[in-house]
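User: Run a structure prediction on this.
Assistant: Running it now.
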Amino acid sequence: MATDSSMQETARLQSEEGSATEQGFASPPPPSLLLLANAILG
């Protein structure tokens, strides 16, 4: 599935980039990302 490979790619990039990426993804998504998701889904 395309979603599967995207998630795997994201996980691979996260592990490569290390703590900087971890901090970004460990915290809740920023409001702008939520607004973007709402725009796409709504």
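The radius of gyration is 12 Å.
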